Amino acid sequence: MSNDPAELLRQHGLQVTAQRLAVLRAVSRRPHCPAEEIAEEARASIGAISRQAVYDTLGILVERGVIRRIQPAQSPALYEDRVGDNHHHVICRICGRTADVECEVGEAHCLAGATASGFQIDHAEVIYWGTCPDCLAKSSETKD
Predict the structure, then answer these.
(1) For a tag site, which of 52, 78, 137, 144 has the least CB within 10 Å?
(2) Cβ of 100: how many Cβ atoms within 10 Å?
(3) Which CATH number applies to 85-143?
(4) Helix pair angle (18-29, 51-63), 10° resolution
(5) Which CATH number is associated with domain 5-70?
């Protein structure tokens, strides 16, 4: 994210408002969070902001490419400010912790798989599912 959130909004043709700044800063501070957690963070920053205003702001920020929406299966949408690259995600099945996973170095092999379909592929969303180190440690403690 740009060091100046107001400038980032302007670069994407968006009017700078206190609500947009609060939501954008919340996404930056807490990547991979659902809208409810972003709303809590934004409220802590500026006071009152409605749930609908948060959802509307997230929608416009995603639409304009300022932030990215990740929609894991059977989970709420998550938001992050890392855009413009082809990275993926890993999610813990136990606690829901989400982390970035870099794409293959060099050619993005994940983009080549579907070309036989006749589609021109420009982006892939890969989500790996597993167990995070903390949950693995807790699991091994309970087995002992």
Answers:
(1) 144
(2) 14
(3) 3.30.1490.190
(4) 80
(5) 1.10.10.10
